[in-house]
Amino acid sequence: MATTSFDICPSIRTRFDSPDETNGLHRVSPSSTERSSLKSWNNLPSLSGSQNLLESQLEYDNIEVQTRKQSRNKTRTINHITLGFIAYFAVAAGPFGVEDAVRAAGAYPVLLAVVLLPFTWGLPQALMTAELSTMIDENGGYILWVRRGLGQYAGWVNAFNCIASNICDLPTYPVLFCSYVEAFLASGYGYTLSGTEQWMQWSSVIMSIFVLAPFILEPLSVETFNLATWGSVAPDIEWSLFLSTILWNYQGWDSLGCVAGEVKDGGRTYPIAIMIAMILITINYAFPVGIGIMVQSDISQWHEGSLETIAMTTAPWLGVWVGVAAVVATLGEFNVVMACSSRALWATADCKMLPSFLAIEWERFGTPIAAVVFQTLTTGVLMNFPFEILVVLDTFFNNLTLLLEFFAFLRLKYVEKDAERPFVVPFGNAGAWAITLPKIMVLSGVLIAQKRSVWMICGLFNVVVFGTYLVWRRFQPAPQATRVSSNTTAYGTGQLLS
Fold this sequence. Notes:
Helices cover 59% and strands 1% of the residues. The chain is mainly alpha-helical. The protein has a domain at 77-392: Up-down Bundle (Amino acid/polyamine transporter I), CATH 1.20.1740.
C-alpha cells in the first residue's frame, strides 16, 4: 500500500538512475556530467519531503525541451587542425583593421600590445574557453556557460549583450571588405575578383597561408630597415579608439565554444588548436605593423586599407596580393563569425529567451538557418555605420560578456568542482584565478577608458534588457507542485513517489 505521509525516507527517482538503482534514495551530484542545470546541492529534495518543486524548475523552465534539443547527435568532424584555423579566422584573419590602432596611438604602443596581449588577453580567454567547452560540450558556448554558472538573470544579460556585440561585429567585415576593394581598384590594377567565391571553398589552412604569406614576404622587398620607426608614439593618444581597436583584433576566442558540440576529442583538440592559433595570430600582427611602419612612418596616414597601399609602395605585385588576401580574409572571417554567432543566437532562442522561430534549423545540415537570416538582415543595416563606432560598441558589449563569462568560469570551478573536464586550466583553482585576475583588470581599464557617449548608449541598452527580463519573468508559467508516480523527472532532479 502506498504511503501518503512524509515521516519516512521518501523514494526519489531521477532520469540518471542506473537500472540497478531503482529503489531508495538516490541523489545526483550537481557536478555530474549527465545532469541538467542544477545550482547547488540545496536544490535537491530534502528529507522533510516538501511538495514544492525545486527552485531549479522555475529557473530552468522548459529544461526537458532544451535537453532534448541539445542532446541531438551532432557529427563531430572538427579536429585540432581545423579548429586551430577556425580560431585564427575567428580572432584575426589577417591584420586588417589594426591600422586605426596605429593611427590612434603610434607604432610602439601597438607593437607592445602585440607582444603582451596574447598572454594577458588572448590566452586567458582561450584557456577558459577550452575548459568550459569540454565541460559543456554543446553548441551554444558562452550562452550556456553563464546561464549554468551564474543563473537565469546573469544568463539573460549575457545573452543579449552577446547578441548586441555580434550584431555590431558582423558589419565590420563588409566595411573592411569595401575599404580594401576600394584601395585595390584605386591602385589601377584591373584584376578580377570573380574567383573569390571559389577560393572560399578552400580549406581554412590554405586560406590562412594565403593571407599571411604576403606579410611574411614583405620584409624581403624593403630596401632599408629603420628600427627607430618602431618607437613612434602619437602626440595625443586616442585611448578609447586605440584600446577598442587593438582588443577587438584579439577577441573571439570564446566563440570556439559555440561549435563545441561538433569538436572531436575536445580535451586534446582545444589545447593544440590554441597553440596553433596563438602562433599564427602573433605573426599576423607583428610582421605587418613592424614592416609597414618602416615604409609609412607617418601614422596619420594609417587607416582602413593602408596595409595594401603600403605593400603596393614596396612592390606592386605584393600590393595586389595583399588586396586579394584582404578580400579573402574578410569574407572568411565573416563566415566564421557568422557560423559561431548564429549558433549563440540559436542557443538563446532554444533557452526561450527569444522567439522560438530563431531556433529553427535546416534539418539536413543542422544549420541555424533562422539565426543566419536574422543576422544577415541586421548586418545589411548596420554596415552603413562608421567602422570606428561599430568597433567601439562591439568591444564594450563584448567586454561586459567576458566579465560574466569569467565569473561563471570561477563559480563553476567551486560549485561543480567534480564535473568531468577533459581539459582543465593548469594548477587548479589557483591557475583559474591567475588567468582571470589580469583579464578582469584589463577589462575594467578598457571600460573606464570609454567615452561618456559609449557608456550612455550601452547603459540604456542594458536598462532595456533589464526591463524586458522583468516582463519575461512575469509571463513565465509558475512551477506546479505535483506528486506523480513516474520513473523519471523532466528536470533530472527528482520528485517524490507515491
